[in-house]
Amino acid sequence: MTDSTHLERRYRRMLAFYPKAFRQEREQEILSVLMSGAAEGQRRPRSAGSGSPDAIHVGYTRYSDV
Questions:
Q1: Mean pLDDT for the chain?
Q2: Distance (Å, rounded) from C-alpha 22 to C-alpha 16?
Q3: Nearest one of 34, 25, 12 to 60, comparing CA atoms
Q4: If we measure between CA atoms, which residue out of 4, 32, 30, 33 comes closest to residue 17?
């Protein structure tokens, strides 16, 4: 399994905590953004201070306000 596959699986596990309707509409978009911002060889999501989980939170907050 490649580093990017490990990372994507971990991001998908994080996204599993969000409501199904949100995931159905936004999961691929969020994964694309997170994966494109990942460092070469990165295997784990970055810590909360680095922005990755914040990107998910901001997207969810905007979605739920609609």
A1: 79
A2: 10
A3: 25
A4: 30
Nearest to 35 by CA among 52, 58, 14: 52
Q: b/e string for 6-43 if b means 16 or more Cβ within 10 A?
A: ebeeebeeebeebeeebbeebbeebeeebeeebeeeee
For residues 63 and 37, give the distance between their C-alpha atoms in angstroms, rounded to a whole number: 21
Reference 42, options 2, 1, 3; nearest CA is 3
Per the listing, tokens 């949100």 go with 22
> In 3D, which of 17, 11, 8, 7 has the Cα closest to residue 60?
17
Tell me the per-residue pLDDT of 8-36, one tens digit each, with 9 for 90 and over: 999 999 899 989 999 999 999 999 998 98
Structure-model confidence comparison of residues 51 and 32, the more confident one: 32
